[in-house]
Specification:
The chain has 16 helices and 15 strands. The mean pLDDT is about 95. Strand 13 and strand 14 form a beta hairpin. It folds into two domains: about 10-145, Rossmann fold (3-Layer(aba) Sandwich), CATH 3.40.50; about 180-415 and about 435-475, 2-Layer Sandwich (Dihydrodipicolinate Reductase, domain 2). The chain has helices at about 20-35, 55-70, 70-75, 80-85, 100-105, 125-135, 155-165, 185-195, 225-250, 260-270, 295-300, 400-405, 405-410, 415-425, 435-455, 470-475, and strands at about 10-15, 45-50, 90, 115-120, 140-145, 175, 205-215, 280-285, 310-315, 325-330, 340-345, 365-370, 375-380, 390-395, 460. The strands form two sheets. A nine-stranded mixed beta sheet has the order 14-13-12-11-7-10-9-8-15, with helices on both faces. The protein has a six-stranded parallel beta sheet with strand order 3-2-1-4-5-6. The chain has about 475 residues and is an alpha/beta fold. The structure holds nicotinamide-adenine-dinucleotide. Nicotinamide-adenine-dinucleotide binds near residues 21, 96, 119 and 149. Keywords: Carbohydrate metabolism, Glucose metabolism, NADP, Oxidoreductase. InterPro entries: G6P_DH (IPR001282), G6P_DH_AS (IPR019796), G6P_DH_C (IPR022675), G6P_DH_NAD-bd (IPR022674), NAD(P)-bd_dom_sf (IPR036291). Belongs to the glucose-6-phosphate dehydrogenase family. It holds the Pfam family G6PD_C.
Length: about 475
């Protein structure tokens, strides 16, 4: 029933920032899980590269510790852990200087894929790209993986694209958006384009509206300094929510091929209407009575901050398929629960043969990204029992755990899939340079509008569902947000 793991050819993977938080929590555990799944052939090598003076032995100890925390179950297998650690090497280097680079170059193997993961702050992307070239590390089989944030606005994204393009071909650049690596996000494409059932209904004639919610229960954690300069619009909407919107709204690509898919996503971004100021709600969390969590301003130590930690928008798409069907986006921090879900809300049946008492029922396709990834379709059925017809809505579970068996319930982490795609050279789930620029071109005027008007975000309490204005945004259209459920 399950696709077998096909091992990738031996590679050299360099993790710049190999001692950082992302490497420790996500990249290394993902690599280890793929290693345990038999995805790597003999000879695969992973080289950590960071500032710290660790040495290979020190790095292996660091990684073992990280895996015991982030992949505890798999790390319990001592033989597998030792075998994985044996693939690791380490170089101490300076991304802004020349220290360590000749040593790194000397460690690399000829004639194989070289994947360079830029798991460092964005100010180091350009210095790394330049030094990779200068030290002769770039071959035709070298690929770079760039983490978010990709730029701060259109100008900076363009400049970064230009710098990377000076050293790499576009097919060598993998701009990561880990939302695209989620199993359910790809399942969304399979459901849309693999079935006859949905696509004929997937348009403004049958879909009333779409809601995309990415709710976080946590605050800014250790990222306060970065976040206070970014805000929810730059940190979440321009990239993650935009990507989800594209996958929902795009036309069927002619094939599941990187450029065919990305061409269609780009067309969606270019068809987005400019957002009217009254179709946007910005919020910022404040402490709630009886709860320990601080408000945003206290958390980042900036008592005058006007950075939004929440944003809700009503977005229109000017094309034949979607004109008249709004897409509502919302994302925020310190909300009532962690929950990322896309709800495609279909129109009501044109006429109820069951009478007014039966109420109005709408089919809702819910694509849940986290937690508990899965897809359900809300359908209306007769409530079982005697005595006339009463209608109820029940979710049709499309995760098919029973049919797929226990492995079906296990979804690999997004980074597992994305790292393997980089090693295979498959860019379908990575953002192309023009896509990122188009997303900034749409986002920039919204942020500039706030700045020029001196907009102050609406307060919302920690643990709530966001500012009340966001409810009004929906209520004005006779709609309501579906609940944020853990
Ligand atoms: P971090 O601060 O924890 O780690 C930074 C790493 O970069 C360290 O290994 C450090 O040694 C290395 N480094 C810093 N300056 C260097 C220099 N001059 N030369 C060589 N190495 C240097 O950062 P992080 O949280 O791991 O984030 C890395 C990147 O991933 C950032 O772009 C961040 O925005 C992005 N990101 C992180 C997360 C996350 O959950 N941590 C999530 C999404 C995106």
């Amino acid at each position: 029933m399950f696709a077998k793991t096909t091992a990738v050819d031996p590679f050299d993977l360099v993790i710049f920032g190999g001692t950082g938080d992302l490497a420790r929590r996500k990249i290394l555990p993902a690599l280890y899980r793929r290693f345990c799944a038999g995805q790597f052939r003999e000879g695969a090598r992973i080289i950590g590269a960071a500032r710290a003076d660790l040495g290979t032995r020190g790095y292996r100890a660091f990684v073992a510790e990280a895996l015991r925390e982030a992949a505890a179950e798999e790390a319990g297998d001592a033989a597998a852990l030792d075998a994985f650690l044996a693939t690791l090497d380490y170089v101490s280097l300076d991304a802004r200087g020349d220290r360590g680079w000749p040593e790194l170059a000397a460690k690399l193997t000829e004639d194989r894929v070289r994947a360079c993961f830029f798991s460092v702050g964005p100010s180091l992307f350009a210095p790394l790209a330049e030094r990779l070239r200068r030290h002769g590390i770039v071959t035709d089989r070298t690929r770079i993986v760039v983490e978010k944030p990709f730029g701060h606005d259109l100008d900076s994204a363009r400049a970064l694209n230009a710098t990377l393009a000076a050293h790499f071909h576009e097919r060598q650049i993998f701009r990561i958006d880990h939302y695209l690596g989620k199993e359910t996000v790809q399942n969304l494409m399979a459901v849309r384009f693999g079935n006859m059932l949905f696509e004929p209904l997937w348009n403004s004639l049958f879909v009333d509206h779409v809601q995309i919610t990415v709710a976080e229960a946590v605050g800014v954690r250790g990222r306060g300094e970065y976040y206070d300069r970014a805000g929810a619009m730059r940190d979440m909407v321009q990239n993650h929510l935009m990507q989800l919107l594209c996958l929902i709204a795009m036309e069927p690509p002619s094939k599941f091929d990187p450029d065919a898919v990305r061409d269609e996503k780009l067309k969606v971004i270019r068809a987005l209407d400019p957002v009217q100021p009254h179709h946007i709600v910005r919020g910022q969390y404040v402490a709630a009575p009886g709860r320990d969590e601080p408000g945003y301003r206290e958390e980042v130590g900036n008592p005058r901050s006007t950075t939004e930690t929440y944003v809700a928008l009503k977005v229109g798409i000017s094309n034949w398929r979607w004109a008249g069907t709004p897409i509502y986006l919302r994302t925020g921090k310190r909300l009532v629960a962690r929950s990322s879900v896309i709800n495609v809300v279909f129109k009501h049946a044109p006429h109820s043969i069951f009478g007014e008492d039966a109420g109005q029922h709408a089919n809702i396709l819910s694509i849940r990204l986290q937690p508990n990834e899965g897809i359900t379709l809300q359908v209306t059925i007769k409530e079982p029992g005697p005595g006339g017809i009463r209608l109820i809505d029940v979710p049709l579970d499309m995760t098919f755990a029973e049919a797929l068996g226990p492995e079906g319930a296990h979804h690999p982490d997004a980074y597992e899939r994305l790292v393997v795609d980089v090693l295979r050279g498959n860019q379908t789930l990575f953002m192309r340079g023009d896509e990122v620029e188009a997303a900034w071109a749409w986002t920039d005027p919204i942020i500039e509008g706030w700045e020029s008007r001196g907009d102050v975000p609406k307060p919302y309490e920690v643990g709530s569902t966001g500012p009340t204005d966001a409810e009004l945004l929906m209520r004005r259209d006779n709609r309501r947000w579906l609940g944020i459920r853990p």
